[in-house]
Amino acid sequence: MKAQIAVLPGDGIGPEIIRESVKVLEAIANTYGHSFSYVYGDIGAVAIKKTGHPLPDETLKIAQSSNAILFGAIGDPEFDYDPTLKVRPEQGLLKLRKELGLFTNIRPLSVFGQLLDEAPLKREIIEGVDLVIYRELTSGIYFGDKGLLENGNKAFDVCSYNSFEIDRILKLAFEAALSRRGKLCLVDKANVLETSRLWRKRALRMATQYPQVQLEFLYVDNAAMQMVLNPRQFDVIVTSNMFGDIISDISGVIGGSIGVLPSASIGTKAALFEPIHGSYPQAKGQDKANPLASILSVAMLLEHLGLMGESNQLRLAVDQSIKEGKTTEDLQRKKGVGTAEVGDYIVSLIRKKQLLKREIMAS
Ligand code: IPM
Ligand code: MN
């Protein structure tokens, strides 16, 4: 197949992890006879420094005209310590999500067997975890009115949701539950927030169309605790933008490292694939950032393009690389290998084309 991929490396470790992801995509293309073209665009602090805008029009056009978008990371400490700044790197990503209508961010979590004893939580807690978070991505408090009053002595951020914004992600989440273990948990703060009560009302209404799905509700504070105490209880979690942002970082602890968690953002027109971690500026340019979250986002991108076999091969290659200890320092007690070496190793496994066969023989 032919596809155009928009590549937006962004800030911090973004360019180095994206370099490995593109290497891997190229290996897939060469091995399986596909032709991917890549169009690069600036976003975030890099774009502000070049053009004054966190999302230049040209980058938006590239994203709009591509079959899929591969995104690295955003954020730069230079912009973090001055709260008076009007232009910030993160605005680039938020605008991109909004302009492209990417209303659902899908964040799957399963724990690699090989990492069970390396992860910060005990094996008994994390073994067998298999959940997915459906995070609303283009509304809520991230996008409500905001501003300063009283000479800068009062600030506000409005959280609002329309029924249609809730229904469209709920539908995807119910469908996901149907195709998985049939459990859907709405995470909210309905004891306090009006928006959360609207989410509950819409979820109860939609539940009548999905009698096979068991719907439950959890307050976000309790959900945060339950995720660490007993993450196996969850199948599909659906939640608003802000709560989804917060609880999905907890999955980084469950999965062993935030460096292995991918995500897909989907909506009406486009699809964007990005790691859930940020720009990790302390590690920038040091060849030590974990490229697996981005490489696993490539696996989700391949699925989006309908290339299920290729995606499966890539996942097997990632498994194998972890099994063989070809991982960066965040996954090791020992020193770990560099970012580029992880990418090269996965490329070499893809080229061998033996992985799927081996897996079938072993089972
Ligand atoms: C994420 C990030 C972003 C968010 C930031 C960089 C704006 O934390 O994708 O989880 O809050 O959505
Ligand atoms: Mn986040």
What do these coordinates show?
The chain has 363 residues and is an alpha/beta fold. The protein has two domains: 205 residues, Isopropylmalate Dehydrogenase, CATH 3.40.718; 135 residues, 3-Layer(aba) Sandwich (Isopropylmalate Dehydrogenase). It is 42% helix and 19% strand. The protein contains 13 helices and twelve strands. Strand 8, helix 7 and strand 9 form a beta-alpha-beta unit. Helix 6 packs across helix 7 and helix 8 runs parallel beside helix 9. Manganese (II) ion binds next to helix 9.
Instruction: Note the run of SSEs as H and E.
Output: EHEHHEHEHEEEHEHEHEHEEHHHH
Q: What ligands does this structure carry?
A: 3-isopropylmalic acid, manganese (II) ion
Mass-distribution shape = globular
Number of strands: 12
Largest sheet: 10 strands, mixed
Low-confidence stretches: none
- CATH-assigned homologous superfamily of the largest domain: Isopropylmalate Dehydrogenase
CATH class of the largest domain: Alpha Beta
Which architecture of the largest domain would the CATH scheme give at its second level? Answer: 3-Layer(aba) Sandwich
Per DSSP, the total helix count is 13
Q: Report the portion of residues in β strands.
A: 15-25%
Which oligomeric form is depicted? Answer: single chain
The proportion of residues forming helix, as a percent range, comes to 40-55%
Strand order of the largest sheet: 2-1-3-12-11-4-5-10-8-9
Count of structural domains:
2
The CATH topology of the largest domain is given as: Isopropylmalate Dehydrogenase
Structural class: alpha/beta
Mean pLDDT: 95
Radius of gyration computed on alpha carbons: 20 Å
